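lol so apparently i was supposed to do this last week
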Amino acid sequence: MPDTENKTTFCRICEPLCGMVATVEDGRLTKLRPDRDHPLSAGFACQKGIAFAEIVNDPDRVTTPLRRTPDGFVEVGWEEAMSDIAARLTAIHRRHGSGAIGWYMGNPAAFSYSHLFGVTAFIKGIGSDAHYFTASTQDTSSRLLASQFLYGSPLAVPIPDLARTDLLIMMGANPLVSHGSLLTAPRIKDRLREIIDRGGRVIVVDPRRTETAAEYEWLGIVPDGDSALLLAMLNVLFAEGLVDEKRVAALADGLEWLRRQCAPFTPEATVENHGIDPDRVRELARTLAATPRAAVYGRFGTSVGRHGTLASYLIDVVNLLTGHLDQPGGSVFSTLGIPGQRAGMMAMGASLRRTYRRKRTRIGGFRAVIGSEPAALMAKEIAVPGDRQIKALFVSAGNPVLSVPNGDELESAAAGLDLMVGLDLYVTETTAHCDYILPVTTMYERDDFAITFQQFQATPFRQATDAVVAPPGLARSEWEIIDDLMRRLSLRTPIFAVFGAMRFLLRRFGREFHPRPVIDMIIRLADGGNRFGLRRSGLTFRRLIGEHPHGKVLGDNIRTGVLGEVVAYRRPRLRLAHQDIAAEIARMSEYALPQDYPMRLIGMREPASENSWMHNPPLLWRSGKRQQRALIHVADAARFGIEDGDPMRITSPHGEIVLPAGVTEDIMAGVVAVPHGYGHKGTGGWRNANRAGGANVNLLMSSDPDDVEALAGMSQLVGVPIRVARDDDAPRRGSDAVEEPVGAEV
Ligand SMILES: Nc1nc2c(c(=O)[nH]1)N[C@H]1C(S)=C(S)[C@@H](COP(=O)(O)OP(=O)(O)OC[C@H]3O[C@@H](n4cnc5c(=O)[nH]c(N)nc54)[C@H](O)[C@@H]3O)O[C@H]1N2
Ligand SMILES: Nc1nc2c(c(=O)[nH]1)N[C@H]1C(S)=C(S)[C@@H](COP(=O)(O)OP(=O)(O)OC[C@H]3O[C@@H](n4cnc5c(=O)[nH]c(N)nc54)[C@H](O)[C@@H]3O)O[C@H]1N2
Ligand code: SF4
Ligand SMILES: [Mo]
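anyway here it is w/ molybdenum atom bound
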């Protein structure tokens, strides 16, 4: 009989962090099922969460350090790998300084506190010229910068108060597939349904009639038209006297400036930009102003257009002017509730604002939001000679060859690096170029507390977990790897010296140098915490795991009236007037699609896929819903003589791909939607993913500094100008048979 145990934990693939029960047989994770006793996800988990057991046990997973040789990768020991990496990195640092060193940290890192701490420690320690890239310039930097402008800190990001709202206007989000973003709300489909059940409305503003739009009210918009729509709504609010000016004046500076900015943008003047009937725009503004509990929420689609910072800023401004910011049922701040949190917000806000003001990227002169440079320019930072040219690049939990514009450029740049190191579960299209691939733990092989997502909790909630199984083979956590590397480097930077002293002191007390005590401190100080003994039964990291394995709900609702704690400017008032915003409004007004590219490209996510990295588990493969297609409106398809399943050529000013067409009425005319993350071409070691076919849509995206969003350095991933044609050279592939996947023997 095997020794079988069921261990309660939670999923960390995407943001709801659904409760999970892991079956562990003889130390091996054999099954994952949803945790029925989790107070919020209550027995829900999606197919990706369940299939993760196949990632843990994937025969294609890297579990030993790999070194690249002319004949391919060979397995090596940690000692050999780390001593060589440390020696080469030290030499590069001595010769060229910290400006020759870069790190790209991808999306899954956001789900691991120790990974985040490790990379932050390394990048701060190695020297102030180092290059730091994250997935956030493909995703959130614009949203964070809007917060920095308005509240003085990129860390103050409001979320819609799902539990109490009666009108939710959702722009550029598809939570029925994505499960929510910058919004941690398990069973989000039920939460949205409850809005309808209590007589409310959910309006989905999206160029595609998405899975979410189909459930609620769809308002089709021209891609990248959000800023124009929001300016027009503000114009109506001002024109019709719907702004509670006294209230706004009590909270914010710059109302008159804002009024002037909006003046030219009437619904009629903007209709070409957003494509929405002027009467509907007026009605939308009036309804929003007249509904006491209402919120506008924007996410991925509003963040990655040409003007993502402007759109995100305008969303909050509309919430403010209609009286819905920081109000029950409105757009609210889910804070940790740490005593003196305003002082902390002020200190961090001031430091991040300073970085934004002072730091300029070598290529393009961009400013860095949360210290992170535009990933779209990473290839040029490697390839273009000069001071601060990147010679050594680390990539952890990211696959930028597929996720960032112009992956081909990045691949050829990578060939010129003196040292490239990947920390990943797989040989991917990106790590395939590395000199070393270092095997890491999956989420079920490490302890965790999802620190990143605490402030996005729609219901105040805490959960922590221990590792469920031991890492396979030689896999190690990112923290262990980075800590080992920092110890081995023969560099005496001031911060590494401090770490050395801390390590020494802690060892004398029999303790390890590890970020866990920092997280424990946050849990203790935050709402529900034990406040270091002041609240006897309060939470600690250990207690969360031991006494609340399914997590702990801290209250039904998010506290409102917290602007005074959240705003990080010295005077606790919002700032509406920004020259940068005015400049973006001007840029938006001047923009026209390039000639010959009259259509616009957007993205779409699929339920059985996660960015570029869940194409290997056989369980997801078998669900059979995952053939990458390019959706196009029936009228456009007819115009170009394209039938469903026909090969369609999509051309942008920067590249060309061919995909089977999916002809549909559920998209705006003039728009094409393509899922990203495909285009595995056999350089990676994930055998099923390699057979998933498809094309890398990011070959159509631009890595030209002129196309990078000016304020936050965002890659433009939606609203991208394209043209399409039937591809007569390609074989018809609408009816491709799905091959049997390589098994994971779970
Ligand atoms: N199944 C699955 N779930 C995921 C992921 C995944 O890959 N697969 N990825 C995860 C990650 S990393 C993230 S960041 C989240 C993102 O989750 P969400 O923020 O919900 O984003 P998307 O699902 O990409 O939905 C964005 C929507 O914006 C629309 N859109 C495109 N252009 C525009 C525009 O100009 N204006 C407006 N108003 N809408 C536009 C698109 O049609 C799309 O429906 O999802 C996470 N969850
Ligand atoms: N065109 C287009 N491009 C997009 C998007 C889009 O919608 N359209 N979405 C963008 C968004 S929102 C995002 S967040 C980015 C994501 O882009 P990236 O973060 O660059 O890449 P992912 O595809 O998420 O790949 C994650 C990698 O991490 C590895 N991994 C998984 N778990 C772990 C772990 O615990 N530790 C380590 N070390 N590695 C791990 C996986 O094997 C995989 O190789 O893509 C962006 N790119
Ligand atoms: S929705 Fe799916 S992938 Fe996301 S946390 Fe829940 S189970 Fe995991
Ligand atoms: Mo993302």
